[in-house]
Design brief:
The protein has 207 residues and is of the alpha+beta class. It has 2 domains: 1-49; 52-195, Immunoglobulin-like, CATH 2.60.40. The protein is 29% helix and 30% strand. The protein is built from 3 helices and 8 strands, in the order αβββαβββαββ. It has helices at 5-49, 106-111, 162-169; strands spanning 53-60, 65-74, 80-89, 117-119, 132-139, 143-150, 175-182, 189-195. The strands form 2 sheets. A 4-stranded antiparallel beta sheet has the order 1-2-6-4, with no helix packed on it. A 4-stranded antiparallel beta sheet has the order 5-3-7-8, with no helix packed on it. It is elongated, with a radius of gyration of 30 Å.
Length: 207
Amino acid sequence: MGTPWSSIIAGTTAVFSAIATGGAWLAARRANSTAEAVARIERERWHAELTPQFRVTLERGDGDRATLSVHLAGPLPLHHLDEIRVEVKQSDDMDYTPTLAGGPTLEQVNAQVWGPYRFVPRVNDADENGQVMPGFPLRVGAGRPLAMERTRPPHWQEGNDREARWRDKWLNKPMRLVLICRRDDFAPWEVPYDLDVPEAPRVRILG
């Protein structure tokens, strides 16, 4: 009985064909994974290069009022932001979580702005506590004025000198802001900003 060379050749060809097909599939999969990784790295690089740059100033006005100017300084390729949300954060690193019975609630503590200035509540759509300014659009090179006021001591703080002690507490402390920025086709940016609030020392006459 002769060797069935045709069957052997056909079987061998099928095996090599299957190996070639599998190899091509693996190569294509690796190529796709590599392309996705490169694209992700490129998106992250581009996102980092477009991180918004701000120039923020505070100009004191009459009484306890002030104007916060938020200027989108760059980068130029960013062109614009669809939304900038500004939040006033705590100006120190103290933990004000209530621990004593009969004291303020956690909700009351969280509603207090622990810093020198806050947004004027309900002006320019600010929230009722003066902590958050809802999003507004801005193009690179433009700015937006926002109304602010000095903070008041919490109502549970006692003493006839509570106003003076509260102002002294924040003397020369920065106002800490976080600007949350959005633009179509990009992940949001969260930009922290510490704004110096220089003030002359308080003079007290003793006697």
